[in-house]
Design brief:
The longest helix has 17 residues. The chain is elongated. The chain has a domain of 54 residues: Multidrug-efflux Transporter Regulator, Chain: A, Domain 2, CATH 1.10.1660.10. It is 45% helix and 9% strand. Helix 2 packs across helix 3. A 3-stranded antiparallel sheet has the order 1-3-2. It is mainly α.
């Protein structure tokens, strides 16, 4: 099913398109939560928990969906510590990115 956007005026339509253009310009690589989870190597639920806890706060779209940028990816991968040997009661998903 195709979505059809209805604008009350041409000005409103242009404003919306301007916002979208700026987002694309400023964030050329935006990753949704599942794409980012694959790149980082954690579960989607882990990213959701990190966002709630403030460990790695996600950006939000106009429709309130989480997304991440290349800067977020560099922060997580660039500052991550080497993987430690995990005990039975720990998992890789419970490991949080270091606080910046």
């Amino acid at each position: 099913m195709e979505r059809v956007l209805i604008y009350s005026s041409d000005k409103e339509r242009e404003l919306t398109l301007d916002i979208v253009r700026k987002c694309v310009l400023y964030y050329p690589h935006m990753y949704n939560i599942s794409q980012f989870a694959k790149k980082v190597g954690v579960a989607v639920k882990t990213l959701q928990r990190w966002d709630r806890e403030g460990r790695l706060v996600a950006h939000r779209t106009l429709t309130n969906r989480r997304y991440y940028t290349d800067e977020d990816l560099a922060r997580v991968l660039g500052l991550s510590t080497p993987k430690k040997v995990l005990t039975d009661d720990q998992s890789a998903q419970d490991q949080a990115p270091p606080d910046a």
